[in-house]
Write a structure and sequence with these properties.
eight-stranded mixed β-sheet, 15 strands, binds zinc ion
Length: 486
Amino acid sequence: MTAPTAATGSRPLVLRNVTVVDTRDGALAPGLDVVIADGIIAEITTTDPDAATAPAAADAAVVDGSGRYLIPGFLDMHAHPLNDKHPAGGLELMLANGITGFRQMAGSPQLLRERDAGTLPLTDDSPAVLALPGALLTPLNAGSIPAAVAAVRDQAAQGADFIKIALITPDVFFPAVAEARKLGIPVAGHLPAGIDVSRASRAGIRAIEHLGPGLTIIAGCSTDEVSLAEAIVALPALRLPSVRLPFMDRILMRVLRRVVINPVNRSTPAEIEILQQAVDTFSEERAAELAEQFVTDGTWQVPTLIRLRTQYLCDSAEFSDDPDLRYMAESTTKTWQGAAAAFTRKFPPPSRATFRAAYDVLLRMTKIFSDGGAPMLAGSDAVGAAWEVPGPSLHREFDELARAGVPALRILQMTTRDPAEFLGTGSTMGTVDIGKNADLVLLDANPVDAAAALHQVSAVIRAGRHYSTADLATLKDQVRSAHPAT
Ligand SMILES: [Zn+2]
């Protein structure tokens, strides 16, 4: 699409006189030349102030990094760009916003085959696909214990990196997690309604997404935990047939696609009442205990606060007035406006007040989990969710984490070093060190001082290729102009 200005292939790149940020402890190392060759950080040396431009190799491209901070590229650890049939615009928008890798949160046998064949719909300007699951485990393919166990085995055999769970019932949840553990494949996803969070953590779910979502964790942090769990179990369950017919998969997926735009829009008065009770009885001590449990079990949290905010505050003008909407197709924006209008129509002011209060509790919970040292990752949940523009939405996640009170260094770690630890890829990513992948971001401000500095992306290096500020602007313009003018 674009022609990045510097190193491609064998031509080395020198980032001259940068300040390297150590994502382990926030230490700053100024005055360094970082040499990149063949997509790898080849050398890091002290800048020689007497050598005006001296590159390490005669043919190297040199980028002046004076006054700039070098960090690993951002990793969006909860994203869905490959759900889209034509994901290119979203992927390029992610890269243009400093995202060099993502965990794809919904897969299929076809996507797994395409990955094997090297035919995933990616371009040179795409972030890396860090992990890809099989098809979502739902009541359709995992409606009974034998079906769930078989689905886990099938997906492991298909080469899935993890099992993504959504909407399955507690009786199926634990056998599915147990089977996955036996096969050594991690499980990530949504906790079933009414489940005991501590038990799910002990059972070995590797990552819990969206702080539950819904009532699960918030009810688990209540002083009335037991009675709330009983009330949740008594709610009418989502009834889906467990018979497996090919066309029903497609129908369910179509229904799900509509639901995921804003799942909160389906809330019933009974659910909102339980949510308000959970808010009223929220216990910081219980949340701190849960954080301790997550540390003990190695259970990761991917809060996706921006996803929760766009759901609970769906009709807020901050979303409908978002200037980044210009990067989205008009049909998408219309769908999101429709979801916001439905939200306003359906929920009277007291319900909306409950949602706002719930979101504030989720911010407090996030801070408690962070303070307690629970492992956490940054993720946006773009594409498919209302008001989530791929790329900018991860930056909004940084802002929400900061709003919750998570320290700036921790936010930086949640999108760089910690994902590498989560994925077991610390030897190739997560810090700026010799031998690691040259997937990097240059910032104009110090990200250890304030998370807002993460927005000041002035250059991106992806697989050793340098995108200047101008290249990034061009990339964004191309995405924008791919959509008909509104
Ligand atoms: Zn998701």
